Amino acid sequence: MKILVCISKTPDTTAKISFTDDQKFNASGVQFIMNPYDEWYALVKALEIQESAGGTVTLINVGGADNETIIRKGLAIGAEKAVRINAEPTSSMFTAYQIAEYAKAEGFDLIFTGKETIDFNAAEVGAMIAEYLDMPYVSFANAMTLAGNTATISCEIEGGTETVEVNLPVVVSAAKGLAEQRIPNMRGIMMAKTKPLEVIEPAAFTENVVTRQFDLPAPKSAVKMIDADNMDELVRLLHEEAKVI
Amino acid sequence: MSVLVFAETHDNTFKKPALEAVFYGKKTASMLGTQCIALVLGDAANAAQLGKYGADKVLHLTDAALNSFDSQVYASVITQVAQTTGSDVVVLVHSAEGKAITGRVAVKLNAASVSGANSLPELSNGFTVAKSVYSGKAKVHYTLNSDNKVISIMGNSLPIEANGNDAPVESVSVNIPAARVKTTKVDRITGEVPLPEAEVVVSGGRGLKGPENWGILEDLGKVLGATMACSRPVADAHWRPHHEHVGQTGIAIRPNLYIAVGISGAIQHLAGVNNSKVIVVINKDPEAPFFKAADYGVCADLFDVVPKLTEAIKKFKAQH
Q1: Could you give the domains of chain A?
Q2: Which residue, among B273, B275, B279, B229, has the nearest Cα to B257 in the 3D structure?
């Protein structure tokens, strides 16, 4: 079983978000993490499958050299090797194209992504990789079993879940429930230092999406505190001021 | 040139996000001086009604193979219809299905895409679409430079109007590829508005002390016609089912009104709810961080306040 896990770097949820004058993300003082859906669910599910069915788990990331911290963390959790496409991603399609260009010659049986990144929430990369590679795509997987070449996957849909069957190879996006988070242990961290991390230059790509501008929301006005014995006043405000009931 | 909207159906009916997508498509088409075509795949009751929300024409493909969802099949069909109708803008819903299709259609049409847009395109300087990013802590504006453009829109992004008439319904010939993903079972909770579409959400946290105390929240939810939600610790402790969990690793919601009861407001929770238009927080701890993100706050014992609020709303509803 040859498995590829796509991992992404995001600011920690608690990070203070600001932008430089030339409309770039201001990384100063920001703690970066591996996108939780990639780390907790996609990677761990890949490892579980590899542990029971054999094979290899390869990580792939599109980004600069400073992404190697999170790549090494993925190796410490248990992936065998990693590939970094040496380019700052400019759009979902750019990222997906680079991953697909690498994957097409490798013949992966399974490609995992997280269901979305927690910073841009586009949820597009998995679908795009599947399209570039002409593979089926199952999104928001929260449980998965393999029997031979057939995967049975439970997925989140609006207001419920559905179960699907699909033959490998397949691209799967991982949601909560697909696996249990693993914390890297000391042995894993030591071993990760010497695992192979290949750096590849990006393939030529015409970018049609331009990030023009970031805005910060207007500061929130102070909360209006309502006395617990005056719920009629809260209802009045929700009706007359907020106009939501 | 035209705008093509994929109006998705659940159980043969159009839910509000699909109507919003049609309305969004019509507004975009008007700006571009062109028409809005709605595309319906599989069984659907009364596809002509999409005209009321702005569709100039409805294309309805009723082939039984389209009653089951496979992103590859749907993306292929949507792309073929976009090409035969000469549509250069394709609009989808940012739903579970929409998210699985948007990227594929964008690749097929070699189109720039915005997934999860929350406002209409701005055409004064190119074709620019905005979306909320970094858990609602910023907004980004993307300019799409390709001839074809694909946009999926977040639910509850713009108020819809139903002031048109029924639209003519036609069919169109397409090649339907064989599905590779087979749906074997669908479990959908019926009788309740799903959280991502809900306009009013009532949510409970650890402050309720146990699942046996949820009755007062359900009473409040009932008078408001709200969908029920909960915080992560509550779902993890199995006080409430996991599908009610809102927050970063749960469901992201954007209702008009979010009432959070006994939830302290950790940043991971806020990440999933701070696109709500109005937030009411009920918590007895004056230091609860949620008050900083709230529009209205009540600092008191929830077991005392919630029934009072329910009564006040009942009284209000009786008068209006």
Answers
A1: 2-212 (3.40.50.620)
A2: B279
